[in-house]
Amino acid sequence: TILVTLEQTKKNGVSAEVAGFVIPLCATIHLSGSTLKIVACALALMMMQGMPFDFPLFAGFIFTLGLTMVAAPGVAIMASLGILQSMLGFDESAQALMIALYIAMDSFGTACNVTGDGAIALIIDKIMGKNRAE
Questions:
Q1: What is the pTM of this model?
Q2: Which contacts (CB < 8 Å, 24+ apart) does range 87-93 have?
């Protein structure tokens, strides 16, 4: 997906230098789609199972999940199982369901990640273009 994102970003007018730096970096640390999938699935499972939840609980979960996603980007759902269990109280069956839901929705998260990476590249290119002009 990195090569496809690089080519699409260049088609959007981003310079090759900016695209070559931003896209691989974002592929490593910018996983908004994966984070959104895990949060949405966790909330849906908690609602379906009648588990209690509130905003402070999910705010802490989202913050911790964001750190986990940067630390272990390639194994997002597996790395998040520990915080799903410790912070949200997911047992083994809920964790198994989370893995299945994550895999089923993987293409949507990837699309979100790629689109976000391209948007960040456009923003950085605009900033760098102004700096080059000066």
A1: 0.78
A2: 87/57, 87/60, 87/61, 88/42, 88/46, 88/51, 88/53, 88/57, 88/61, 89/51, 90/42, 90/45
